[in-house]
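User: Design a sequence. Structure:
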């Protein structure tokens, strides 16, 4: 999942440099959602993961 969010951030940056405003907003929103989901799942795994 971190790979997808990084890819969306790269796409948003390239689109911003090329002047595609609407695409930048949509792709940046997708990147934020994926980063947030990754952080929530990561923290849940850290705090509630299996104890060996």
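Assistant: Done.
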């Amino acid at each position: 999942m971190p790979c997808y969010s990084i890819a969306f951030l790269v796409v948003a940056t390239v689109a911003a440099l090329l002047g595609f405003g609407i695409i930048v907003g949509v792709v940046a929103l997708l990147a934020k959602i994926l980063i947030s989901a990754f952080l929530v799942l990561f923290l849940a795994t850290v705090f509630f993961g299996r104890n060996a």
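The chain has a mean pLDDT of 83. The first helix runs from residue 2 to 18.
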